[in-house]
Amino acid sequence: MKSTFLSLVFVMMLTAVQAQTAAPQQTAPSKNTLANQYNALKNKANSYNESGQQYKVVNVRTLDSFYKSVNDSLQVISKKLADARRGADQELIDARANVAAQEKQLKALTEETARKEQEVQKSQHLINNISFFGIDMQKQFYVILNSVIIVALLIVLAVVMMQYKSSKRTAVEKVKAFDEIDSEFNEYKKAARERELKLKREMQTEMNRAEELKLEVAALQRKQHA
Questions:
Q1: Residue 32 per-residue DSSP state
Q2: How many Cβ atoms from other residues are within 10 Å of residue 129's Cβ?
Q3: Contacts of 20 (CB under 8 A, 6+ apart)
Q4: What is the pLDDT of residues 167-225, one digit of tens each?
Q5: Any idea of the CA torsion for 81, 85, 86, 91, to the nearest 10 degrees?
Q6: Model confidence band, residue 226 (pLDDT cutoffs 50, 70, 90)
Q7: 91 with 98: CB under 8 angstroms?
Q8: Coil, strand or helix: which one is 54?
Q9: What is the pLDDT of residue 5?
Q10: What angle do CA 44, 66, 23 make, to 5 degrees?
Q11: What number of other Cβ atoms are within 10 A of residue 34's Cβ?
Q12: Mind spelling out the 3-state secondary structure of 87-125?
């Protein structure tokens, strides 16, 4: 019976000693440790042999004091373990909160990255494309189309200029021909007027001569009647 009790006390002492050794906040060992108390209890106990085995007779007050020390140590260790567990739980809660916050930040960064990627693609599209009369086309094709249009306009302009020069030359020739015809017509009118004046003068001369002849005939007739 005594051997069983001492074994139980020894196990409790070892457990308490290991717990005290594993406590994170204990930096220096105390002089009145459970190991020292146990050694003092064992050394102060009276020894006797029975049936070839050695037994210890322990003072009840000393044993109660040692039990109280073990119990207090166990309570302290239990409190420290509970505090450590609460601290670990709080750290776990904080860690989960940090993970949730980091996941939220990661999601926000992912969305921001996707938005920036869309903006980059849109900017790249605006750089590579242009809207022409509401039609979205690549700038390279737009440049080629403009070049073709400019070349076509230059060809049309050249044709128009050639036609204009030809028309101008024809118009100049026609104006020159008209001037020549007008000059000839004016000369013809002048000559016709001169002929008309000449004919009028000749007619006037003939009329004057006829009048003179009438006067002469009348004079001759008067002479004959006289």
A1: S
A2: 15
A3: 26, 33, 34, 73, 77
A4: 888 988 888 888 889 888 888 888 888 888 888 888 888 888 888 888 888 888 887 77
A5: 140
A6: low
A7: no
A8: strand
A9: 45
A10: 125
A11: 24
A12: HHHHHHHHHHHHHHHHHHHHHHHHHHHHHHHHHHHHHHH
- Could you tell me if residue 51 is left (phi over 0), alpha (psi between -120 and 50 degrees) or otherwise beta? left
How far is it, in rounded angstroms, from Cα 53 to Cα 88?
48
The residue to which tokens 């004959």 are assigned: 224
Q: Is 203 helix (H, G, I), strand (E, B) or coil?
A: helix
Token readout for 30 is 């105390």
The reported pLDDT for the residue numbered 4 is 45
Domain boundaries, the chain: 2-96, 138-226
Q: Using the structure block, give the residue that is written with the tokens 């039609």.
A: 135
Please name the residue that has the structure tokens 């009790």.
Answer: 5
Residue 185 φ/ψ, nearest 5 degrees: -65, -40
Q: Which among 113, 225, 220, 201 is positioned nearest to 212, based on CA atoms? A: 220
What gap in Å lies between CA 11 and CA 80, rounded to an integer? 20
Amino acid at 87: G
The residues, any chain, with a CB within 8 Å of residue 99's CB and separated by 6 or more, are none
The 8-class DSSP code of residue 24 comes to T
Q: Residue 16 carries which side chain, given as an amino acid letter?
A: A
User: Is residue 60 within 8 Å of 41, Cβ to Cβ?
Assistant: no
- The residues, ordered by sequence, that sit 6+ positions from 58 with a Cβ below 8 Å of its Cβ are 6, 41, 45
User: How far is residue 222's CA from residue 226's CA, in Å, rounded to a whole number?
Assistant: 6
Block residue for tokens 């166990």: 74
What is the rounded distance in angstroms from the CA atom of residue 119 to the CA atom of residue 117? 5
